[in-house]
Design brief:
The complex is a heterodimer. Chain A is mainly β. Chain A has no helices and 11 strands. Chain A is globular. The mean pLDDT of chain A is 93. Chain B is mostly beta strands. Chain B is built from no helices and 11 strands. In chain B, strands 2, 4, 5, 9, 10 and 11 form a 6-stranded mixed β-sheet that branches. In chain B, strands 1-3-8-7-6 form a 5-stranded antiparallel β-sheet, with no helix packed on it. Classes of the chains: A mainly beta, B mainly beta.
């Protein structure tokens, strides 16, 4: 079975632009979470979706939004990009049988904002 | 929210040595996981261990939830064990893992 897949792997944008990152969970997993990892730090939670509903939101501005589709894949959107948005964006999936258990991460999308 | 602290921040080992990484957390947790991030950025889940002890090959982990800490043991280390090890915890009622700042491990041949 394929693991969590993310696209694109790398992205370069300029300030003020908009970006869409995509994630496909492991087959059978209905929960998708997004994390941002700045160089030298641990990942920080952005969003969690289960059955197409937002179940958790981290401390990120409204420029960040996400959604989950009927096939459980997900998109993370960031508007009005800032230099500080440069980071590795990680998607994780889990089975979630009532509560979140083990998370499996994709390889991430490295976003550079110039 | 929950605070997660890891120690040591950096560790250099010779191949074949053993090591213990520690994770302290500030509140009750219902989810505690250990990850290894390789030099290419891939986060690999090593253990889901909210309590008790688990072993997987040369790696083992113990979480003492009542005392709010977890330990990751690496035995007979190999150069491929190099990378950053993260502990992450989720407190009751929340849906987010809070990560520690990691332990950067370098295993030298």
């Amino acid at each position: 079975d394929a693991g969590v897949t993310q696209s694109p792997t790398h992205l370069i944008k300029t300030r003020g632009q908009h970006v869409t990152l995509r994630c496909s969970p492991i087959s059978g997993h209905k929960s998708v979470s997004w994390y941002q990892q700045v160089l030298g730090q641990g990942p920080q939670f952005i969003f969690q979706y289960y059955e197409k509903e937002e179940r958790g939101r981290g401390n990120f501005p409204d420029r960040f939004s996400a959604r989950q589709f009927p096939n459980y894949s997900s998109e993370l959107n960031v508007n009005a990009l800032l230099l500080g948005d440069s980071a590795l964006y990680l998607c994780a999936s889990s089975k979630e049988t009532g509560y979140i258990e083990k998370l499996f991460f994709g390889s991430g999308t490295q976003l550079s904002v110039l | 929210g929950i605070q997660v602290e890891q120690s040591p921040p950096d560790l250099i080992l010779q191949e074949g040595a053993n090591s213990t990484l520690r994770c302290n957390f500030s509140d009750s947790v219902n989810n505690l996981q250990w990850f290894h991030q390789n030099p290419w950025g891939q986060l690999i889940n090593l253990f889901y261990i909210p309590s008790g002890t688990k072993q997987n090959g040369r790696l083992s982990a113990t979480t003492v939830a009542t005392e709010r800490y977890s330990l990751l043991y690496i035995s007979s280390s190999q150069t491929t064990d190099s990378g950053v090890y993260f502990c992450a915890a989720m407190d009751t009622g929340r849906r987010a893992l809070t990560f520690g700042s990691g332990t950067r491990l370098q295993v030298q041949p």
